[in-house]
Specification:
Elements: H1 3-12, H2 15-32, H3 38-43, H4 45-74, H5 81-90, H6 98-112, H7 119-151
Helix pairs in contact: 1-4, 2-4, 2-7, 4-5, 4-6, 4-7
Length: 152
């Protein structure tokens, strides 16, 4: 099997679908929590740490999906998440990389500056930006539909 055939099979064997389902599950879990006011959130270290971890996992899923698509389309691996987002934008898979670039910046903060993640940033993402993850999932589903139409 050629590398091209292998990559096409990866797009059809459910890997992206499984990751999209996991993203949906994680967002549903986070939304089901009673986050409360900012003061309540800030005061609850367990809630903050759990939210931080779920958001990090959500961003990792976005990165994984994007990297898989880059590999499928280009048969290469993007050097980094920023390069992956540029490829997705330039390919018309996402209209604007900025909301997703902010996700990656958040993930980098959590991973590399883990000693202190501002509760205000976490709270803001939970209250205002979870829809960015859903937008990404919707765009990927549209990409998959278009890809499946062209491959049949």
């Amino acid at each position: 099997m050629s590398k091209s055939q292998s990559n096409q099979n990866d797009s059809r064997n459910g890997i992206i679908d499984r990751k999209l389902k996991l993203l949906e599950t994680k967002l549903h879990e986070l939304r089901s929590w009673e986050i409360g006011s900012f003061f309540e959130f800030q005061s609850n270290t367990m809630m903050r740490y759990a939210a931080e971890r779920i958001l990090q996992v959500c961003v990792e899923i976005v990165i994984d999906i994007g990297m898989r698509i880059v590999a499928i389309e280009k048969q290469l691996v993007a050097e980094n998440a920023s390069g992956m987002l540029s490829f997705l934008e330039n390919s018309g898979i996402i209209p604007d990389k900025q909301p997703f670039h902010k996700m990656v910046k958040f993930r980098n903060l959590v991973v590399h500056r883990y000693e202190y993640v501002d509760a205000e940033i976490l709270y803001g993402i939970i209250k205002k930006n979870l829809s960015d993850f859903e937008q990404f999932a919707d765009l990927i589903k549209k990409y998959q539909l278009k890809k499946n139409r062209h491959s049949t």
